[in-house]
Amino acid sequence: MPNKPQITLMDTTLRDGEQTQGVSFAPSEKVSLAQALLGRLKVDRIEVASAGVSAGEQEAVRKINAWAKDKGYLERVEVLGFVDHNRSIDWIVGAGGKVINLLTKGSENHCRKQLRQTPEQHIENIHKTIDYAEQQGVNVNVYLEDWSNGYRDAPEYVYHLVESLKDRKIGHFMLPDTLGVMSPDEVTAAIGDMVTRFPALSFDFHPHNDYGLATANVMAAVDAGIHSIHCTVNCLGERAGNASLAEVAVVLRDKMGIDLNIAEEHIVDISQMVESFSGKFVACNAPILGSDVFTQTAGIHADGDKKANLYVTHLTPERFARKRTYALGKLAGKASLEQNLDEMGISLSDEDQKKVLAKVIQLGDSKQIITPEDLPFIIADVLGSNDAARVMLIDCATFSPLSGKSSVELTVSVDGKTLSEKGEGNGAYDAFARALDEILIDYPELTRPKLIDYQVHIPKGGKTNALTEASITWELATGRKMTTRGVHSNQVVAAMYATLKAINSNAGELVQ
Ligand SMILES: [Zn+2]
Question: Which residue ranges does the record assign to the Pyruvate carboxyltransferase domain (predicted)?
């Protein structure tokens, strides 16, 4: 059996990723990320800075290099530098570095119009910079900036540039699709050509994602014989960003059978680290990384999973130290509920499960977001309900200005009869209580017990959109204490439900 092809990954989150609009890593963040990328995620190489940026940047690179040297990783830490004869190399050496990624012009247009040099002048300057790097013991890789356009517009220029450098000691010739303009077919043809023309050289591909094709282009590049791929965590990078490390790693492994060194189980935790340091968050539905991508919302999927893992693919959450979850909402079925109950170690009778599911679907229908964490509240709410409720909430609009009284317009049904009343009070709940008392004045057996404690909770770990639970403790006329709960996304409405439960069960107690 032939060996699986080996592809190495170069992560440039700390250099190209930092070119994302509004992103600037603090020196200590750069050091932590470099350690996480090489030490935990096992990326093959990292590009950590542009030479010459600032003293703070150089200090961060110095710390990364000191740590990397200690771990034996020094030759895997790279810094972007320029054809400036000695300045970039001096900067890198000053930071204890060992590798320059030398930015040369990969398109004749850039060479003539931006540098205002002939190709021969540019090539001569590149050689001088490489000479100096060699004297200083710095390894050289070469970027062919804007190679994708340069190759399309004037391939002879690109051939000539590589030809003139091919006998130098250059580790990687790095081919950027700087503006993210290539399609997979174009990548296959262009990289195939480069690799065939210069079989002794090692080529890297540096894709950008302007057309959303970065990952597909990586597949094409690997097919064409590329040796190494550049990517960033969370797709960070200028405009639409670079190729996503998570997607590249998983696609190369699963779809192309490539051997990689990446430790997949750290992809998500390092993505979260980059999110918090960069302030740029991945979309909920971003492949592998998004918060929702291992959540089944449809009851039928949960049912299939419970019976025989029918909806499980090779892309399992466990690979990334994540868990599959089953959303609760209007599409949830019995199986989604059962999966969640199993997870929490709760067992309910069929009858109670039906009641809980009906409540979940009812809440989901009213566009409330329900998470598994809300489930204990819903269970407590439903199982504590009195089926023979005499007073039921139909509608309630509340208005609470910052200063002055709150007001409500309340509609309830009492024994099936719809009754409305307005109320004012010291806060929305007080206004509700007064309106309700007014409505119930003709029903002496339906009285509101004395409120002695009132607490509002959201589920542990819940966010601002979590359901709230109002838990109210009452003292009945008999002196007995009773606690009722109400659940709703609006905490005042949750308290209304808790209050009506108290009135309904108090009435039941009086009748008994
Ligand atoms: Zn780039």
Answer: 7-268
